[in-house]
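RECORD TYPE: inverse folding
INPUT: structure tokens
STRUCTURE:
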């Protein structure tokens, strides 16, 4: 489930980038998998969605949004659910590797 506390406030300017997305007029089914979709069918749908994202003028804003709120489903900013999990996992590992300062 999306962590809504990380979502931008309901201010139109925080969401305007979505109106310029290459996906704006496409069916959501291209970007979100149906229950039980696996294997080649899922990979093909994800690759088609990522191809649309690759030419999108707001790919950076979309990707930033998906990573910051940890979108759990769909293709966002050219990243699949698995792609985001890997990126977020790496960030968590990097944060954990930082030395802790000890109070004296």
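DESIGNED SEQUENCE:
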């Amino acid at each position: 489930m999306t962590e809504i506390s990380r979502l931008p406030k309901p201010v139109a300017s925080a969401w305007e980038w979505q109106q310029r997305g290459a996906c704006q007029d496409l069916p959501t089914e291209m970007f979100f998998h149906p229950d039980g979709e696996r294997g080649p069918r899922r990979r093909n749908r994800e690759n088609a969605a990522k191809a649309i994202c690759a030419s999108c003028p707001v790919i950076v804003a979309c990707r930033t949004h998906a990573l910051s709120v940890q979108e759990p489903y769909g293709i966002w900013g050219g990243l699949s659910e698995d792609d985001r999990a890997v990126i977020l996992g790496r960030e968590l590992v990097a944060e954990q590797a930082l030395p802790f300062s000890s109070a004296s």
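NOTES: Residues 19 and 81 are 22 Å apart (CA to CA).
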